[in-house]
Amino acid sequence: MTDSKLKIVVWNEAVHEARNEPATIGEMYPEGIHGAIAAGLRGFYPDSEISTATLADPEHGLSEEVLAQTDVLLWWGHIAHEEVADEVVERVQRHVLGGMGLVVLHSGHFAKIFTRLLGTTCSLKWRNEGERELVWTVKPSHPIAAGIESPIVIPRQEMYGELFDIPEPDDLIFISSFTGGEVFRSGVTFSRGKGRIFYFSPGDQEYPVYHQPQIQKVIANGVGWVAQPGVFREAPEVSNPARGWFEEA
């Protein structure tokens, strides 16, 4: 548990919940996937303000006023990426470049904000047959890996496999292996502008992965690492100084 006091927003498209697809999602996640993630975080950040937002909210719950006060935004999406308004994506991108932390989860690899920030397709191999996933720590010195057992055993999970079309990550923290033989870079970090990004793949609408304590801890560690509450929220700017500025100064 940490004493950090942060403003955290958990965003979820919440389309599966609205459609009751799969039929077990209400039983697994009665408060939605976003609710389960937020509940897990509250155990690690009891003094922080943790709220949720969804696609159906006005401005998707991500207005300028909300983002200006947000230290960390977590993003879960799957089947409604194209329904996210471009102006909201641009707004989130500006805040990430200015220093807001971003944690992207599971199928959020195809989210507009993630592909825009990374500049690649972010595509991957996948197969959803409920296979066992082992999450191996390959950089135990990283703060996100602190206190995490290796491997984390996920009994049933959607398979994600290489090639994962992302830029070379700043840090490769976790690699997953699956019973079908595939491997996947399941925990990676990036920096964009002044912002920090953590992508973590385990978690799917068909399996109760976000209730696993070790998965919750990884996500909490990720939140703590991407958060930079003391950073002045301003995107890097390019200036055009007059010739001789140094001498005149």
Automatic annotation (TrEMBL):
Pfam families: ThuA
SUPFAM superfamilies named among the record's database cross-references: Class I glutamine amidotransferase-like
Domain of life: Bacteria
Domain ThuA-like: 8-226
Protein name per the record: Trehalose utilization protein
Organism: Arthrobacter bambusae
